[in-house]
Amino acid sequence: MQQLYTVGHANATLPLVRRIVEDIVVNHQRWRERVLEFDLLASSVRADAPDDRATQLERQAQALARDIDAFERELAALGIALKDRRLGLIDFPAMLDGREVWLCWRLGEPDIRFYHELDAGFGGRKPLAAPVEYQSPTHP
């Protein structure tokens, strides 16, 4: 791992990261729709008779894939790993109790609340310990 995040630093980047991940999820859904439509159309078109709609769908899918790759590169430049394009699942590299872990966030979650071991993945997510809130001393 290169850059390590604290929970606070990861949460501070979420406004930017959220926008990037939203773009990835939306474009990934569009890409899947174009690929499915292309596959259905291509299976019904004769090989010796090209179809303009199939060509258009293929170009759209390729353009969407390039956009998704560019968004993923933006996350990688921040040191953040995209784990699932469909769900909008990302991991921030971090240190917790002296060991490297992933701070885990999924689109729709308000902030960073989970982590998992490097080899565990989403299924191994564990809640972060609740932060200790400052309480003012009581006066008699």
Written overview of the protein:
- This protein is of the alpha+beta class.
- The protein has one domain (7-127).
- It is 46% helix and 19% strand.
- Strands 1-2-3-4-5 form a five-stranded antiparallel beta sheet.
- The radius of gyration is 21 Å and the shape is elongated.
- It starts with 6 loop residues before the first helix and ends in a 13-residue tail after the last strand.
Please tally the β strands and state the result.
5
Distance between the termini: 51 Å
Please summarize the sheet with the most strands.
5 strands, antiparallel
**Helicity range of the residues?**
40-55%
Backbone CA Rg? 21 Å
What string, H for helix and E for strand, traces the elements in order?
HHEEEEE
Condensed summary:
The protein is an alpha+beta fold and 140 residues long. The protein has two helices and five strands, in the order ααβββββ.
Topology diagram in text:
Blueprint: H1 7-44, H2 52-77, E1 81-84, E2 89-96, E3 99-106, E4 114-117, E5 126-127
Antiparallel strand pairs: 1-2, 2-3, 3-4, 4-5
Helix pairs in contact: 1-2
Question: Which labels suit this protein?
Answer:
single chain, 140 residues, alpha+beta, five-stranded antiparallel beta sheet, 2 helices, 19% strand, elongated, disordered C terminus
